[in-house]
Design a protein that fits this description.
heterodimer, A: about 280 residues, mainly alpha, two-stranded antiparallel ribbon, about 0% strand, B: D-Maltodextrin-Binding Protein, domain 2, 4-stranded antiparallel sheet
């Protein structure tokens, strides 16, 4: 069997490889190339060197502003999502009544598309703010927290499921041993449960960090950057640069490449860091 | 085992091939029209069906969602099945898409233009032809106005809308109406000044047209205000006070509180008007379908009238509606000659055959700039009739659409976001004014 697999290795890899090349490698390389060109549609590019990268910073400070906004957003939401998801996971592994129902309920928001979520939350948030004579566009702070709430609502269920899987994997022997040794629930949590679910933490952090950075459609539907692009995250800024200004397609592309590098570096650092923790435990 | 695998692979290969073959087999449509006007989407579908029935040539119509035309065009035109007919929004739009515009100086469509200076030309070629003339102003519900004029508590001495002929009279009437809202049975004089992003074009483009038109027409270096707009690098924004006048009037006498305008859309405003909750709304004759299609609308067609947008500029007496076009049709240069011909034939049919013209007048409700349409072939909706009435009235002076000379989309949306900030009270008018001047310069 092993021999047969080896023999057909190329054949088996081929379909996935083709899909990967068509759907990822080619667009990615083309995107990097386009960031060095000026173009209207992807078929009429003219090479301009680093001009687009310079323009991305010199033209106005929208890119840096939205990058900073995104970083703030990511820090707040990564923290809140993981803490809340882990807390829910702990509660829902205690065997309380209706555990399955709760798990389903918390997971459900993850199945709704971002645009729909954005509009739903816009209605809810505006409904509340109207009472006080404001709307979500009145103040960028409203938009910021609106986005955080939305992101939490969407992602907590998903992360909770991953944490539940991790917690359920902890062998009861260790927990019982801890109990016999007289560890209180606080010590058990920090000395046993958290170190044991480090693999889940790695995954959850990775997913929340990358998703927070890349968030686009809820942003578009909830605030669309209003007021005055002050709640515009990087993905939306790239989209707006690319589409709503003619002659700026290349600049949008350049921003996208830089954005990719930033997210990739942060995500890799995080993986390296949490992986190390895993080994130690 | 091996046999099974081979068989399986064979099956997969066959399936894949058949899929790719059917994909190839799908025939390209001869004519592909990328429509700009969401409100006309259904009418174009009917037109395409009728044309296919008559000639057997398939017409594909795709409509871009509101305010997404540029990006839809950008991605569609890069495809192998690219739009054969698309539209540009005037000289600025033509500059962006000139590599794609076919010279149509020998086409029938161009020959139909009653005033051939309307077309977009460069050197000897004609690259885009306007297909609809539109007008905008303040739409009002005459039933409510009559109720106001009959009001015993009325404080102004104005007894008919014809007497509203300047900003001062308009302001007096509106202010007095706001004081008597409940007696008039309305919730605000003006519909919401929609300022959510992508929904602010009525202000950052249409309303801004008025003060800038007066500024540009005073510039004697150019024969024509649009030309001045296209060439000026620095503008003065001399009539900013007048822009503030009218904008303040809108937001202070509105159905919606100023701070909440950022979440309102044009459709919201039109619905408020259609349901009789407000007396006035600034929009153009294209909005008729948005009024008539609202469920439970209470406004009678013959009560819907237009009045000019007064801003208090000297010499605005006798000002008419803002009438012009930003809808220019162009043929894609990069599709096959056969497709180009089919596209021109389709347009020829639409704007000159009896069936086509019937669709244009009665379904699309277009007032066209073509001489193939006679005086009786004008749309029947109340707003279009009003536009025609103003066009034919020699005692008023039409304000042309000079906003086709605004430097870029970015300029308009940026200004729009500043208007929102102003309405919400987070920015001063002075900041808006300065930003407008700066942005014009940097985007030019």
């Amino acid at each position: 069997m092993g021999k047969a697999v080896k023999k057909y290795f190329a054949l088996f890899v081929l379909p996935t490889l083709i899909a990967f090349v068509i759907a990822f490698a080619v667009p990615f390389l083309m995107g990097v190339y386009l960031s060095f060109t000026e173009f209207r549609t992807v078929s009429d590019a003219q090479f301009v060197g680093f001009a687009n990268y310079i323009k991305a910073f010199s033209e106005n400070n929208e890119f840096l502003f939205s990058l900073w906004f995104t970083v703030k957003f990511a820090v707040v939401s990564v923290f809140s999502i993981n803490v809340l998801a882990f807390a829910l996971a702990l509660m829902l592994t205690r065997g309380i009544k209706g555990t399955n129902l709760f798990r389903t309920v918390f997971f459900m928001p993850n199945l709704i598309g971002g645009i729909v979520l954005g509009y739903i939350w816009q209605l809810i948030i505006n409904g509340v703010l109207y009472k006080y004579g404001y709307s979500i566009t009145s103040n960028p702070t409203f938009g910021f927290w609106g986005l955080v709430i939305l992101m939490n609502w969407q992602m907590i269920g998903y992360m909770m499921i991953i944490y539940i899987a991790g917690i359920q994997n902890i062998s009861t022997d260790i927990l019982e041993a801890a109990k016999v040794d007289g560890a209180n629930s606080f010590t058990t949590l920090f000395r046993i449960i958290i170190p044991s679910v480090m693999p889940s933490v790695t995954i959850c952090l990775f997913l929340t960090i990358t998703n927070s950075f890349k968030m686009f459609d809820p942003n578009l539907a909830l605030t669309a950057g209003a007021p005055s692009k002050q709640t515009q995250m990087v993905a939306l800024d790239i989209y707006n640069t690319f589409y709503s200004r003619s002659g700026y397609e290349g600049v949008g592309q350049a921003k996208a490449v830089m954005f990719f590098l930033v997210v990739a570096v942060i995500a890799l650092l995080q993986l390296w860091f949490t992986r190390r923790k895993e080994v130690e435990s | 085992m091996k046999k099974k695998v081979t068989a399986l692979l064979l099956v997969i290969v066959v399936i894949c091939m058949s899929i790719s073959l059917t994909a190839c087999g799908k025939k390209k449509s001869q004519v592909y029209f990328l429509n700009f006007k969401p409100e006309a989407a259904n009418a174009y579908k009917e037109i395409a069906a009728a044309y296919e029935k008559e000639t057997g040539i398939s017409v594909k119509v795709v409509t871009a969602a509101a305010n997404t035309y540029e990006q839809t065009l950008k991605s569609e035109i890069a495809k192998s099945d690219a739009p054969t007919i698309f539209q540009v929004n005037g000289p600025i739009g033509y500059n962006e898409w000139k590599d794609y515009c076919l010279d149509i100086k020998d086409s029938k469509l161009y020959s139909y233009l009653s005033d051939d200076t309307l077309a977009i030309k460069e050197d000897d070629g004609v690259y885009a032809v306007p297909y609809v003339v539109e007008g905008y102003g303040i739409i009002y519900n005459d039933a409510i106005m009559q109720r106001y004029f009959a009001l015993p508590e009325k404080k102004t001495d104005i007894t008919s809308t014809d007497e509203i002929n300047s900003f001062d009279t308009l302001k007096a009437v509106v202010g007095d109406m706001t004081a008597n809202l409940s007696k008039l049975g309305i919730e605000g004089v003006f519909a919401s000044t929609s300022l959510s992003s992508g929904e602010d074009w009525r202000w950052q483009t249409h309303l801004l047209n008025v003060p800038l038109y007066y500024e540009f027409s005073e510039n004697t270096d150019y024969d024509d205000p649009t030309l001045a707009g296209l060439n000026l690098k620095d503008i003065e924004f001399k009539y900013h006070q007048n822009f503030e006048n009218i904008f303040d009037l809108y937001i202070n006498n509105s159905i919606t509180e100023k701070t909440l305008l950022g979440s309102k859309s044009t459709a919201d405003s039109m619905a408020e008007f259609a349901l009789g909750k407000v007396a006035m709304v600034q929009n153009g004759n294209w909005a008729w379908s948005q009024i008539s299609d609202v469920e439970g609308n209470t406004v009678k067609a013959n009560d819907i009238k237009f009045m000019p947008i007064y801003t208090g500029i000297d010499g605005e007496k006798g000002q008419g509606l803002c009438i012009g076009t930003e809808n220019y049709i162009a043929i894609n240069k990069n599709v096959t000659q056969e497709q180009q011909k089919a596209s021109l034939d389709f347009l020829d049919w639409l704007f000159s055959s009896t069936t086509g013209k019937d669709f244009v007048t009665n379904k699309l409700d277009y007032i066209t700039p073509f001489n193939t349409f006679t005086e009786d072939e004008l749309p029947n909706d109340p707003l279009a009739k009003e536009v025609v009435r103003y066009m034919n009235d020699d005692s008023v002076k039409t304000v042309p659409w000079i906003f086709t000379s605004f430097p870029s989309e970015e300029f308009k949306s940026h200004i729009g976001s500043y208007l929102l900030d102003y309405a919400q009270g987070t920015r001063k008018w002075d900041e808006f004014k300065k930003e407008l001047i700066n942005k014009w310069k940097s985007e030019r």
